[in-house]
Design a protein that fits this description.
It is a single chain. The chain is mostly helical and 145 residues long. The chain is built from eight helices and no strands. The termini are far apart.
Length: 145
Amino acid sequence: MRYETIKHLKDVDFNRLTGVQRDTFERMLAVVEKSLRDFGRPTKLSRADQLLMTLMYWREYRTEFHIAQSYGLSESTVCRTIQKVENALVCSGKFSLPGKKALQPSDTVFEVVLVDVSEQPIERPKKAKNGITAAKRSGTRKKRS
């Protein structure tokens, strides 16, 4: 899926598809375009498509292999692109998740229970050859002569 095909969607549908609102997407795109440099071979994907691919990876939990097949790229290219976009967004300081303490209220009390499940030898009766053969013999019929 390319950005050109989804940019005409309604705001509600755009949010449902990408997981972010359109103005957030535009701000993310501005950061990505500003921080990622253009050098070397031109990329197959525009910056908007690269951002959309990263959002697809975050939102849908698709594997890099499946995303690579959708965009006609190699799996390693998808991995590098996602890492570059993530780094650009994090380094900008404008987009970050709340810290661990903000996600977890401070009044939460954890109770930890430790269970010792180490192995212990079990006492079992010793097997004797005589006991096994005697049991076998007693179960069989004796032949009459």
